[in-house]
Fold this protein.
Amino acid sequence: MGLTARIRTRDGWAVSHAVVTVTDTTGSQVVRAEADGEGVVRDATALAPGAYTVIVTAVGYAPTASSALVTASGRAEVGTVVLARQGGGELPPPGPWTIDPAHSSVGAVAQHLGISSVHGRFTEFAGRIDISPGEASASCVEAVITSASIDTGNAMRDGHLKSADFLDVETYPEITYRSTGLTPAGSDRWTVHGDLTLHGVVRPVDLGLAYLGTGADPWGGTRAAFRATAELRREDFAMNYNQVVQAGIAAIGTTLRVELDIQAVQGTSLPQ
């Protein structure tokens, strides 16, 4: 006898803080039960045969209501209830996630001579993502990049990029990003608002973020994948060096496209 239900997110994760309320045809509450750590609700209250309304709520998720018919057995088997994030955007399960540099990339693309692109990447970086158990907009990310780890595949060019003309890695050894907010932009897309510190200058920078899903890894952990992009203007960060070649074409474009492919491991540490 009683009520059973499983509460899940759209990508199958348990919603452990969900509450299930059952009301009868008069609107009176007859059962109220909380989900356990696995998102499962079990309540032994005997229910009289008839029609009921089952309402599922959880902080940070849109509430849902459905009908349930209790037979002579006195059981209300609701099955699996899927909750959508408030505002429609999905994120990984709440808690800390650690960025895995070995399976992530931080890249930048600049235009060269107005006709082609130069691709570079930073090989040393670290970061953490904290997914809020409540409002998704309260989630946050912090990342630190080692400036001298820039790699464009050309040692002479890399040396110039590390000089005072560009990154000035001796004076500014780190590039940092700290988010200040999160706005949904679709079912699996977000705009991350944050402050980028680059070349000693702090500027607000928005990232267009796509959440690609979660899955198990070979080391017994759980990983989440993200892809993000942003555009930066070099002069906004006091990097004004350039050369003008024939016909007034700049050797190096003033706009950088930042491209991030991120894997994050659930928890505060990476597998050994």
In short: The two ends are 47 Å apart (CA to CA). The CA atoms of residues 145 and 175 lie 5 Å apart.
